[in-house]
């Protein structure tokens, strides 16, 4: 049982997301505004920044989704490709064959 739990802990790849229900700002009409990064996204649009996907819904809900944490099991490595956009840029576990 311990081995199964340990394997589950060592083999983690999870995502990270945040949501702002009302991302309106009167200074930026027709856009969602993120107060944390001071970024804007047009209403109804999706953009990619870094290794994140930013979406602004028609009712001004702002969703930011990214890669989150990646942990490899013993003998494997975590590799990522920052030249690609989300989710292909996210860290992935690579194990020798």
From TrEMBL:
Entry-linked InterPro entries: SVWC_dom, Vago-like
Protein localization: Secreted
Superkingdom of origin organism: Eukaryota
Cross-referenced PANTHER family: AT09846P1-RELATED, GEO11553P1
Keywords, in A-Z order: Secreted, Signal
Signal peptide (UniProt feature, chain positions): 1-17
Residue ranges of every copy of the Single domain listed in the record: 32-95
The organism of origin for this protein: Culex pipiens pipiens
GO CC annotations, alphabetized: extracellular region
Primary location group: secreted
Coiled coil spans: none
The protein's name in its UniProt record: Single domain-containing protein
């Amino acid at each position: 049982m311990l081995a199964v739990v340990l394997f589950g802990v060592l083999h983690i790849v999870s995502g990270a997301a945040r949501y702002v229900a009302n991302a309106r700002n009167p200074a930026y009409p027709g856009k969602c505004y993120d107060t944390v990064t001071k970024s804007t996204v047009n209403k109804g649009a999706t953009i990619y920044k870094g290794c994140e996907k930013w979406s602004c819904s028609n009712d001004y809900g702002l969703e930011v989704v990214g890669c989150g944490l990646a942990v490899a099991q013993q003998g494997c490595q975590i590799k990522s490709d920052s030249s690609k956009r989300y989710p292909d840029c996210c860290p992935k576990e690579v194990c020798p064959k």
